[in-house]
Amino acid sequence: MEHIVPVHVLRHRVRAVAPALRGDSERACLLEILLRKHEAVRQVRVVAAIGSVTVRFDPRRLPAGAVLTLLDRVVGNLGRATPRPMAAPPPDGPVNTVRVAVGGMTCASCAALIQMRLGRDPRVRTASVNFASETAEIVGRLDRGAVDSVVAALGYEARPMDTLAQRRLAAERDRARLAEARRRAIESGLLSLPVMALGMAMPRFWLWRWVELALTVPVVLGLGRPFFARALRLARQRSANMDTLIALGSGAALGHSTLSLLAGRHHLYFEAAAGIVSFVLLGRWLEERAKGRAGEAIRRLIALQPDTATLLCDGVATVVPVDRLAVGDLILVRPGERIALDGEVVAGLSAVDESLVTGESMPVVRGKGARVVGGCINGDGALTVRVSATGGDTVLAGIVRMVDHAQGAKLPVQRLADRVSAVFVPAVVAAAALTLAGNLAAGRRPGAAVDAAVSVLLIACPCALGLATPTAIMAAIGAAARRGIYIRDGAALEAAADLSVLIFDKTGTLTEGRPVVESLRILDGDEGEVLALLAAAEAGSEHPLGRAVLALAAARGVRPPPAEDFTAVPGSGVRARVDGRLVEIGNLPFEGEPAAAGTRAYARIDGRPAAVLAFADRPRDGAAQAIQALHDLGVRTLMVTGDAEEPARAVAAAIGIAEVVAGATPARKHDIVAELKAAGLKVGMIGDGLNDAPALAAADVGFAIGTGTDVAMDSAAITLVGGDIAKVAAMIALARRTRAIMRQNLAWALGYNTLAIPTAAMGRLTPMVASMAMAASSVSVVANSLRLQR
């Protein structure tokens, strides 16, 4: 049997030696190197600015107590030691980690170029540029300004993304870029359609040919100008990508057709030039839309932190921006407010909705000494909280980082075309040049030689290659949408076909996500009368358990009488006077009542025990059948939940899941996904809550329940409408079909070019026939993809 090996995360603030470490990046770097030498240590993060150390380790090789001893010894030695001066201290300052957003990238080769140039800088230790997330992370002796200069020198833009305001500004830029991509796609389509119609009609009247030219020039040289600019920039760097092929194909078609028009020749290829640009601009727009959806998860998470908080200073309450708060400050959290930052309750009692962290729908009681998490919603009571973490050290910031990193690690399937073009582009250009030279050497007239070379460029144009995967993806996405499965990008389709393990959240995913009264045990009185009194007392409550009592009464046809003097006691329960009788419902057990698992409520009428209510979150209808369908496909299933062990295992047993991890935090869920992926498994994650977002983003395929939170749906690649998890099996089958279609399309597109280029080089194809063959190749790819719509 396979087991999940737990990876413990220990966060240890070394307060005693903080003066020796805080602000000293060289010591922090040395500490990280020394800790990494231990075979049990997997990851080390040192933040010198605040003197904190985070160690991720294997508990089988290194117990937690030994980690503390190791930290104390190593940090203590650093604190007493005097670092040796360097012979030639670098002029650029201490080691920094700079993370920026990079604008202007259009393909994976752009990211590779920036990463290569940064990596060659002697001041850089490591550089990672991710095209999918449009971010770069650089570790070295470069400050933000130096990074900006290096990136700008390559023709791209580096933008800061540290603060909330900077992230919001980046989001506005993303929306503007999406609008621009949409405008270019629509305008090019409107201009290209009449050109294509005229090209197919092949009119002899010369005026129509000039109309074609007039419509094609703004498409190719106006809307398609960025392709030429990027191709030229990459040529200077001795590199090439899809932009190079697009510029060569459309430019050659336009140039050749213009010269032929001026020479009075009839064979023109304006429709090929305009069509190439229009097809690609349409694809880029669709790509930008997918990227925009990916960024929504981050934006929604950031929005969970309130902009302001109520600061308590010498008994005076003042509303201040959250960014001004410091560790140790006291803040007041009023009923119904979001908690601004992580901290410890120093006064007050309330029920707090911590679904952000645990995923559980039931609020938990938080009183003096309890830890609370920023972004969670306070209940009916007021709390005074001492801030324990700010900025990037909060739990919410950690979740944002995990989602950001996990999403950035994804590479869409369309990048395969760019990888192929890295070899394909130089080969095509060389073939065209050799064709021109060979035909001239063979004594053919220059016009015929040029026709042959242009035919090579046209027939090798990457339309079919560029359409091979996007068209299959679009067809599959449409077919899935008709079944209530919404797919965000093609990478999810590709990965879903190979899924070997699926991780399920419990609450709201496998279960309905709301408590119901599982049993009502009457201790004194008539059941109908007692239930009417309990429902009357709960009528004024907003608590999920109170709504469950009202639902039970309605289901049994019990109409509660009006209640008076209703009082909600945060963390305890409710009391009210109904028909002159005092009704109390709370979590305080009766004397002599045996302890029981699960959630219980105890009702007293006029001070005497009256009833015991047991609550449960029931499995969704069809959950057991869905799990069995996945097992039939050979997919392993796990439940990973923030709920307690006993209720989690009870639900798992009822629906047929054998492996359960209970009490899991968002970081633990994320780590389990990472561990399974590191073991070589293709991992899917299905959840509905904020706490599932990091794991959903980190998984090879994230499935969100359509009735869950917006952040979960934005973090996941696939959303199941209505919460029907049985659709997962249907999704896997569709994914396998789609992968087969994509492979067929790619094989056809590459095979077509392989056979057609030599034919064109031998002069057997005119540019007109070449452009028609190129169009036919694209049509055949689209037609094959449309089979997925059946």
Characterization of this structure:
The protein is elongated. It folds into six domains: 8-80, Alpha-Beta Plaits; 96-162, Alpha-Beta Plaits (2-Layer Sandwich); 176-296 and 412-470 and 767-789, no CATH class; 308-393, Calcium-transporting ATPase, cytoplasmic transduction domain A (Distorted Sandwich); 479-512 and 621-736, HAD superfamily/HAD-like (Rossmann fold, 3-Layer(aba) Sandwich), CATH 3.40.50; 516-616, Calcium-transporting ATPase, cytoplasmic domain N. A hairpin with a 2-residue loop joins strand 21 (573-578) and strand 22. It has a seven-stranded mixed beta sheet, sandwiched between helices. The chain has 790 residues and is α+β, with helices and mostly antiparallel strands. 50% of the residues lie in helices and 19% in strands. The model is unreliable at 1-19, 79-92 and 409-414 (pLDDT under 50). Helix 10 runs antiparallel to helix 12 (395-408), helix 13 packs antiparallel against helix 14 and helix 15 (463-482) packs antiparallel against helix 25.
Cα distance, first to last residue? 40 Å
- Briefly note the structural class of the backbone: alpha+beta
Q: Total domains, how many?
A: 6
Inertia-based shape: elongated
As a percent range, the share of helical residues equals 40-55%
Q: How much is the radius of gyration in Å?
A: 32 Å
Query: Which whole number gives the mean pLDDT?
Result: 77
Low-confidence stretches: 1-19, 79-92, 409-414
Number of helices: 26
With strands numbered from the N-terminus, the spatial order across the biggest sheet is: 17-29-28-27-18-25-26
Number of strands: 29
Largest sheet: 7 strands, mixed
**How much beta, percentage-wise?**
15-25%
